[in-house]
Design goal:
There is one protein chain. This protein has 180 residues and is α+β, with helices and mostly antiparallel strands. The chain is 56% helix and 14% strand. The protein has 7 helices and 5 strands. Strands 1, 2, 3, 4 and 5 form a 5-stranded antiparallel sheet that branches. Helix 1 packs antiparallel against helix 6.
């Protein structure tokens, strides 16, 4: 039979983890995430050159104009978005925004703005694929549950280590011979 661990340590760590994660998530608010793609990119616009173009002020400014977000600057969109290469060397754009429609519109505009900057090549049809919808990020409830699970794991580990330190030292050869 397994020895019981100190439940107070386990529950305490789970509670602290849940409260800490929930408080951080509440402070951050709930955002929506939308993703768009530009596929069949010419080889000289993949890699670092393509990412540098995607993160440049020209593409970000054009994306904001296409989405009708004139009150924000390129730095705002740069802070709330990512541009990544996919495994097929296409580009993926992810945008976080406080509103579902705003996130989808910005992600789609980002792909269009990048596509406009890539020169046309004969035989290669570079396409943009806009965001159909935006998904809600994890939010306060999800982060609270995740924090509780992490705290539970940490609490179990601490309780097991504490119990192992409190157990008596192993018997030496002389003590084993006397008890046998």
């Amino acid at each position: 039979m397994l020895p019981l661990v100190d439940v107070r340590i386990v529950l305490g760590c789970a509670l602290v983890g849940a409260i800490a994660a929930g408080a951080l998530a509440l402070a951050g608010g709930t955002d929506y995430r939308a993703r768009s793609f530009v596929i069949r990119v010419p080889p000289d616009f993949t890699g670092e050159r393509g990412l540098a173009l995607a993160r440049g002020d020209a593409v970000l400014g054009r994306a904001l104009a296409l989405a009708g977000e004139d009150e924000h600057g390129a730095a705002w969109l740069r802070a709330r978005s990512t541009a990544e290469l996919t495994s097929r060397l296409d580009l993926s754009f992810t945008v976080k925004a406080p509103d579902r429609e705003q996130a989808a519109a910005l992600a789609t505009a980002y792909a269009i703005a990048y596509r406009e900057q890539v020169p046309r090549r004969a035989g290669l049809t570079t396409r943009g694929r806009g965001a159909r919808d935006a998904q809600r990020t994890l939010g306060p409830v999800g982060w609270t549950l995740l924090g509780a699970a992490a705290g539970l794991w940490l609490g179990m580990a601490l309780a097991i280590v504490r119990q192992g330190r409190a157990s008596p030292p192993p018997l030496g050869p002389a003590e084993r011979a006397r008890t046998a």
